[in-house]
UniProtKB/TrEMBL annotation:
The chain crosses the membrane at residues 31-55, 62-80. InterPro entries: Acyl_transf_3_dom, Acyltransferase_3, SGNH. GO terms for cellular component: membrane. The gene is Cnig_chr_V.g18276. This is SGNH domain-containing protein. Keywords: Membrane, Transmembrane, Transmembrane helix. Pfam families: Acyl_transf_3, SGNH. GO terms for biological process: polysaccharide biosynthetic process. Residues 216-435 form the SGNH domain. GO terms for molecular function: acyltransferase activity, transferring groups other than amino-acyl groups. Residues 29-110 form the Acyltransferase domain.
Amino acid sequence: MQFPFIITLQSRSEETSFRKRFLADEKSPNVFLHLWSLGVEMQFYLIVPFIFLFLQILKKDVLKFIAVLLTAIIGCIAFLCFNSPIAFNFMPLRLWQFAAGFCALYWNKLNPEEELPENDITHHHLLRHTTPPLRKAVPQLELDPDCVSRLYSHHCQRLRTVQRPGISLLGADVFACSSKIIDANEALEFNFYSSNPNLKDECMMRDMDPPVPAANLYQYCLSPPGNGTLKIMNIGNSYAKNLNEPIRDPFKFNYSEFRYLSVLGGFAIFNDPDTQPHTDLFRQQVQKYKPDVLFITARFSDYFKLPIQDNDQLVQEINDNIKFFEKHAKKIYIMGSMPVFRFNFMNHFLQYVISKPEDLEKLNLDQKIADEERKHAVERLNRVECEKCKIYDPSPEFLENGKYLTFDRNTTMSYVDNSIHITETGFKLLEPTYAKLAREAMDMV
């Protein structure tokens, strides 16, 4: 009976002795903290799967961002509340660092407008340059051989990671499909300095009379004569060239003259302080040719969208120029202010086509935001005093359910290019607008 009691007493004595020796050893705290740290790691990795499951329940990225942000903040506060030797091995340290990483991930998803640097080799550029058999001839595209070789090497490394034939074939199909969409969209890119890609007839004259210095950066074209008697002229900035054929087509050659004058930074009815003054040039040409129908086709600058002041000088300038044009034209059509599409839209759109096709609808413009941005420009145009003028707004053709559409859902073709000009796909939406204006002009003049 005494033997078990003696054994127990001896064990307790040895345990107490071991504990004293352990605490006396200078290495013991380090060993203890190390073991504690391992325990914390085990606890953390047991919690991680539940964090992932919780994030899967939340459907929207904004909710996921809020969840991981709160986790990071709470974990960081708990971490800061502990003694530094203990806190370093405390689980909240792992937790808030882990959550902070996910904050960065979901923040990027909440801000899709961020663009990649121009020198970054994106998958978009990879598709553009590494599929010659699938590409159509795009005259505007010139390839740098060194760049192409690097892209080929990069692409080959990506292909080596795909082992299963089924996945390879599926990837090839997606690759080919994306490449065709990219080619088709890039072929629509507008180039101010090249011949008009959608011009159906050769220009009879490309130089103005009298000659204008090349520094004015203009494009001029006199189309072959039609079968009618109307003299039609289209003036403005690069949009005059961009939309020239959609304006000309509905007349079906029912004119004797059709010419356009497109000047970079030329708004026809006012001068922007940030660009060269061009109104005198437009006045000179309108006075010289005296068109029956005058189209003023320009995308207005930010200067035109400034708040309207009492006795607004810009409104007075517009009215002065309009009165001059009225003396020499029988009917004037002025294109209204368009919604603001982002620059480099085509590249941004193609990135979504490749990486996030399910989110393409996010690229459409919210009507309320777009209309608020251009409201001063619309109001300024409404103050124009002109009996022969009609201000037309083509933007309703792009409007659907409170959104200004930026691409065709059926063909995945963009309505806007990188320089925010309208593409041929967008021209189809504008056909009813310009057909109506053409009928009206032919009936009234």
